[in-house]
Amino acid sequence: VNEFELIERLTTGLPLNASTRVGSGDDCAVLDLGLDGQWLIFKTDAVVDGVHFDTSALPEQIGHKAMGRCLSDVAAMGGCPTHALVTLGLPTGFDALRVERIYSGLRALATRYGVAIVGGETTTSPDRLFLSVALIGTVERGRCPLRSGARAGDAIFVTGELGGSLVSGRHLTFEPRVAEGRWLVERFEIHAMIDLSDGLAGDLRHVLKSSGVGAELQVDAIPVSAVVRGGGRLDNPSEADDATTKEMGGRLKSALSDGEDFELLFTLPAGQAVELMDGWRARFGGLKLSCIGRITSGTEVTLRGKDGIRPLELDGYVHFKGT
Ligand SMILES: [Mg+2]
């Protein structure tokens, strides 16, 4: 049983109640607690020593990442984060100063987004340190983009640049796209949105599966990060007949499947694309926004490039040679 199969088993037939608008399976849960004009969104996430960070991470960055991951999920709902609870698992013989520094990273990011930390829990975790954050926020009633909302003909957009997040250390310092997510849902008809944690190939699949649609991506439009463009993480280009194509394949694969980008992927009616690009440039000029393709009525994911159309595998593997 792998992780996804286990999650499937554990989340089948979970108890829900009348106020549950969206339960397990999206970036956040969505709850209707009778707030005037607003739904509540609810999320928990954890970072674990040796899994989400290692000894190369500064303590402040560990706290930043723990809070940032939750904020990124709230951003994917177009939500406004409000309150957090923090659970800290401390190993035997923990270094108090290091833990204080972790907490200060967490507090700094929470403060920047107006998130109140209203409690939590400290427990012993004999083997290793972990940090778990639960976050609530609000979103306008009926304006919360779900994974299931993509429609054939939608344009697909991603913020920022993708790939190389682990190699470059960006996974410890990323800025969650909360302001961007808010801006998008306030001004445009965002049909579906997700934050990129597993890599574009995997996270796009989540949207397509939930929505019952397919996608065609434009190879040239996928924003490959500078660190990947600079030569990190290439498949052995020397083994290929066509080194250039193979090298592009390696870089593209990195952008599609490295993961932990914490950018937003969203879809909206193609007719809103030009207005979106203009508005984005005026509001978030420094942050790239790319239209990477369109939603199709099939169930396939294909990549359109110079040498034709190729299927995209689940893990981001790109068939550049033959099919
Ligand atoms: Mg997410």
How does this model look, in words?
The chain has helices at 3-11, 59-76, 96-112, 165-168, 178-187, 200-211, 226-229, 243-257, 273-284, and strands spanning 20-22, 29-31, 38-48, 80-90, 116-124, 130-140, 154-159, 192-195, 214-218, 264-269, 289-296, 301-305, 308-311. The chain has nine helices and 13 strands. The longest helix is centred in the N-terminal third of the chain and has 18 residues, at 59-76. Magnesium ion is lined by residues 27, 73, 76, 194-195, 197.
Helix residue percentage: 25-40%
- Which whole number gives the mean pLDDT? 91
How much strand? 25-35%
Bound molecules: magnesium ion
**What is the H/E string?**
HEEEHEHEEEHHEHEHHEHEEE
Query: What's the assembly state of these chains?
Result: single chain
Radius of gyration, Cα only, in angstroms? Answer: 20 Å
Strands ordered across the widest β-sheet = 8-10-7-11-9-12-13
Figure out the total of helices: 9
Could you give a short account of the major beta sheet? Answer: 7 strands, mixed
Shape: globular
Sum this structure up briefly:
The chain has 9 helices and 13 strands.
Which SSEs are present, and which pair or pack?
Elements: H1 3-11, E1 20-22, E2 29-31, E3 38-48, H2 59-76, E4 80-90, H3 96-112, E5 116-124, E6 130-140, E7 154-159, H4 165-168, H5 178-187, E8 192-195, H6 200-211, E9 214-218, H7 226-229, H8 243-257, E10 264-269, H9 273-284, E11 289-296, E12 301-305, E13 308-311
Parallel strand pairs: 4-5, 9-12
Antiparallel strand pairs: 1-2, 2-3, 3-6, 4-6, 7-10, 7-11, 8-10, 9-11, 12-13
The site of magnesium ion has 6 residues, from helix 2 and strand 8.
